[in-house]
Specification:
Elements (H helix, E strand, L loop, with lengths): L1 E4 L3 H10 L3 H6 L4 H8 L5 E7 L2 E12 L4 E8 L8 H18 L3 E7 L4 H7 L3 E12 L2 E11 L4
Parallel strand pairs: 4-5
Antiparallel strand pairs: 1-2, 2-3, 3-4, 5-7, 6-7
Helix pairs in contact: 1-3
Amino acid sequence: MHFVRIQEVKLAVDLYISAGEWTTFSHYGLNEQMAMESLFASNSCWRYIIEGEDVIGIVGLERINPLDKVAEPCMAILPNKQRKGFGLKAFQKLCFGLGVNEIGLRRLQATILSDSPSHKLLDKSGFKCEGVLKKLRFKNGEFIDGLLYAWVKGEN
């Protein structure tokens, strides 16, 4: 598995949508064009995840703050490639290889929904739950709590 810098924005957004992550963008009131622009924002760093010769997902750091050395990791894996270990490898390579070792980040933080299986990936990667964000998102007719996870250099 390796990463390739994203150059074709439409493919990246299509992957994100097909992985079921479009709700992340639509929750913040973003349309598809705005979502594409966010993938190339100056404070973001997105990569395709390649296995063999196939693009199987995208992974990125968003809201990179160079002064505070903080960023938010994000990822979307195609449904047929989920739960096979690709996500964990890609997430850790992005966070610790690129984020901590190359960029020099000292804090990585991620917000997930309380019903998301992503907490397993965060736990395995050394992230700790720092708190509950009450009724963060409206989903399937009800409000769902969010969970704030973080990895802090020297503390995890």
